[in-house]
Records
---
Amino acid sequence: MNQFRFSQFARRLASLSGRPATFMIAALAVALWAATGPLFGYSDTWQLVINTSTTIITFLMVFLIQNTQNRDTEAIQLKLDELIRATQGAHNAVLDLEELEEEQLERYRQRYCELASLAREKLRTGELDTDSPELKPLSRT
C-alpha cells in the first residue's frame, strides 16, 4: 500500500472511529462479551478474548491516529507559515520554528512572552497594543 493510499485509509478510519455509531458498536460488543460470561463460566479464555481484542485494536489505532495527527499538524503549520509569509510586517524568521532546536525555540517563546507582557501593560495604562515591535535577532549560540 503506497503512502497516499495509507494516508487516505488512516484518515477515513480515524474519522469513522470517532463517530457515535462506532462507539455504540464497541459498547455493544463489550456488553455482548460481558453477557456471555456466565455461558463460558468467566473462564480465562473468555477474559483473554476481550483483553487480546482490545489490545490489538488499541495498538493499530495508535498508528492510524498518529498518522492523521501528523498530517493535520503539518497542514496547520504550512497554513500558519503562509499567513506569516503573506502578512506585511510579519517576521519571516518565525517561519518553520518547529524545526529549531529546543533552546532556540525557548528564546523565541521568551521574547514573545515579553512582548505579550508589554502589550498587557500598555492596555492597563490605556494605550493601544496594536503595534508591531521588532524582534531582536537571536544569536545562534
---
Amino acid sequence: MRFKIAAFGDSTTAGTPGFKSPIEAPPHGAGDVQSQFAYWLMRAHEDWLVLNRGVNGERTDQIRARLAHDIRELDPDVLVIIAGVNDIHQGLGAEAVQCELQTMYELATTAGRSIPVVAASILPYNTASADANARMRKVNDWIRAYAERHPQVAYCDTRTAVARPGDPDRLLSSPDGLHPSPEGYRLMALALEPAIRKLLIRTGARELDGRRDA
C-alpha cells in the first residue's frame, strides 16, 4: 500500500535546474533525479508515491488553473503547494499571491473528499531585491497564519530549510543563485516530511483499507 502525495508548484517543485518534471518532460521527467524534493521524500518513505507536478516559471494563477483538474485525476492523499516566487519576481504584490494561494488551498480542502494541504513558504533567491524579499516575507507570514487557522492545512517553512544560516534571503547551496542544489532539495524534503506525515496521520490515511496501489 502506498500513499499518494501530489506536489504542485513552480521550478522549486519541478527540480530546476537539474531536473525537468514529468509535466515538462513526459512521461517520467528528465535529468538528475536527486534535484527534486520528491525523490528524497520517496527515498525516505517507500510507501509514499510523490508526484512531481512542478512547472518551471509558472505563477500562482497558472498553477491554480490546472489544480482542480489534476486533483480529480490524481486523487491524492495530501497536496504540497509551493508557489509565488515567480509572481514576486514579476513585480506582483503579496496580496495577489495570497489570493491565488487561498483559492488553491480551498480547492483542495473543499473538494470531493477534502484533501489536506502542506502550505510551504516561498524559497529565497540570491538576486532578490529588498522589496522582493519583503513581499516574500509578507506572503510567508500570511501562509503561516492561514495554516494556524485551518486544521486541514499544515505550514512548512521551506524557506528557512534551504537558506544560509543567519542569512534567510540567500540560498545555502545553489548552482545558479536561483534554485536549490540537490542538497538543497534534500533539505526541503527533510522539512516537508513531518508536515506530510502529520496530515496523513491526522486524516486517518494510515487506516485506509488498501485502496491505494501505485
---
Amino acid sequence: MKIVVIGGSGLVGSKLVGKLREAGHEALAASPKSGVDTITGTGLSEALAHARVVVDVSNAPAWDDAAVMDFFQTSARNISAAETAAGVNHHVVLSVVGTERLQDSGYFRAKLAQEEAVRAAPVPYTILRATQFFEFLGRIADSSSDGQTVRVPPALIQPEAAEDVAAALADVALGAPTNGIVELAGPEPFRLDEVVALVLSANRDARRVVPDVHARYFGVELDDHSLAPGDSARIAPTRLDDWLRSTTSARTA
C-alpha cells in the first residue's frame, strides 16, 4: 500500500522509508526537498493521493517558541485537511516520551499542541512517543558546553537508536490505529550525564561532563520522572555499547 512519510528525508524518516520499501510498500518521502511543504500546503494533496497511511516525523526548522508552535500547529492542520480529502485511514505521528511533563519548554508545548491537533482530527491515529536518540546525545553535549565543561542534569533516561525508532514506526504504521499513545524506550536506563560522558569518551572527546541538577534540557529542569517511560512502554533492542561499536566501526571504515 502507499504510505507517505512526512519528513522522509531526515534521520528517522529516511530509515523508515527504506524499511517500508523493503517490506514491499510504496513509501513516499515527502519533504521540502521533494516539493512537499506542510506549512504552505504546496504539493501536499498530490503526495497524499491514494495513500492509506501517513507518518509524520517532521521537525521544525526553527525552535524559538513562536516559530516552533506555528510550525507544528499549521503543519498538523494542513496534513489533516489533505488526509481527509484523500481518504487516509491512519495517521501516525512521532512525539517524545514525557512531553506533557516538559511544558516549561516552548518546544514541548508545541509538540503537545501537535498531539492535541492529531487527536482532534477526524483521521484515526497513533501517537508514538520515543525517548531521546543515541544519535542526538552529542548535540546535547554541544548545546550544554562551556569550553571544556559539559553541564547536564543527572536525570534518568532510556535512550535508543534511531534505527529502532524507524522499525517501531513501520510496525505501528502497518497496524491498526490505536487512537492513543504508544511509548518506545531503549533497553537500558542511564543518568543523562553518564550516557553523555560515555558517548563523548567513545568519540575521543576530551570534554568533562559535570552533573548539574539545575542544568536545563530544552529549557526545562529535570527530575527522574521527566523523561522516564511508563511501565507498558515497548523496549527497543539496541544497547548503547552495540550502537557505539557499530558507529565507531562505520566511521573507521
